[in-house]
Specification:
Layout: H1 3-14, H2 27-30, E1 35-40, E2 44-52, E3 56-62, E4 65-69, E5 72-78, E6 84-89, E7 94-97, E8 100-118, H3 132-135, H4 139-142, E9 147-152, E10 156-164, E11 168-174, E12 177-181, E13 185-190, E14 196-201, E15 206-209, E16 213-231, H5 232-237
Antiparallel strand pairs: 1-2, 2-8, 3-8, 4-7, 4-8, 5-6, 5-8, 9-10, 10-16, 11-16, 12-15, 12-16, 13-14, 13-16
Length: about 240
């Protein structure tokens, strides 16, 4: 089993609590020094969580959230019933959390994670699913070797993209998405009108593409690796 799936399975088993059952304050209000909000709009709230060895975060809750680990750390987690367990996080681990309460302590390493709270997941009805027309020409269908989907539910679709120097990806489109970079890369991006731009990515960099994007690209330097979270509520809200 992959590291991503091991961590996801652990959290599902260890924190089997729904959003409605949460009583602790949310992570940002309880522990804002660790959980720093960097993006907040009608579809998502994104926080950058960082902590070093010895840091303890008091009991708090998370709504439905997709989490991407950028750093490497060992944590002791505690559930509301007092049950504790140890687990390791590593760069690139990614998982969907339905909603949890916990406290934690960093035992070793440096915790650095990006949490993407999905606001549509708090609603009774999920957003409309993307149509075949909306999916036509998207990154996953045009270039699946680079854009590998590893998670999807009614609220989001997540793929991991990887590239190395000299690689090119043909013209494709992205719906509204959040990009979390895990490595260093310089990319030349070309739009449908032929205009080009140079983009530099670094570990932990976060980019919100709220209007979607259509482009082709070439990796000029580095080894790109990114987790891309497509937000279906934002895609459904786009004008045809």
């Amino acid at each position: 089993m992959s590291g991503k799936l091991r961590l996801a399975s652990f959290l599902v088993a260890f924190f089997s609590v729904t959003v409605l059952a949460q009583t602790a304050g949310d992570a940002v209000s309880v522990d804002p020094v660790v959980h720093n909000v960097i993006i907040d709009n009608e579809f998502i709230r994104v926080f950058d969580a960082r902590a070093s060895r010895g840091t303890m975060s008091p009991m708090h809750s998370h709504p439905p959230t997709f989490v991407v680990s950028v750093g490497k750390a060992r944590l002791r987690m505690k559930a509301p019933d007092g049950n504790t367990s140890l687990f390791d996080v590593n760069p690139g681990m990614a998982l969907w959390i339905e909603g949890v309460q916990h406290s934690w302590e960093v035992l070793a390493g440096e915790l650095h994670a990006i949490g993407v709270e999905i606001k549509s997941a708090l609603n009774a009805e999920p957003p409309l699913a993307p149509t075949a027309a909306q999916r036509r020409g998207d990154a996953v269908s045009v270039d699946p070797d680079v854009h590998h989907v590893f998670f999807e539910n009614p609220h989001l679709r997540v793929f991991e993209g990887r590239a190395s120097r000299g690689m090119r990806s043909p013209m494709h489109k992205h719906p509204p998405s959040l990009v979390v970079s895990l490595d260093w890369m310089r990319m030349k991006s070309t739009g449908p009108d032929g205009k080009t731009s140079i983009l530099d990515f670094s570990p932990g960099m976060v980019l919100w593409m709220g209007d979607g994007l259509t482009h082709s690209w070439e990796c000029l330097a580095g080894n790109g690796r990114a987790i891309v979270i497509e937000v279906k509520a934002a895609q459904a809200a786009m004008k045809p």
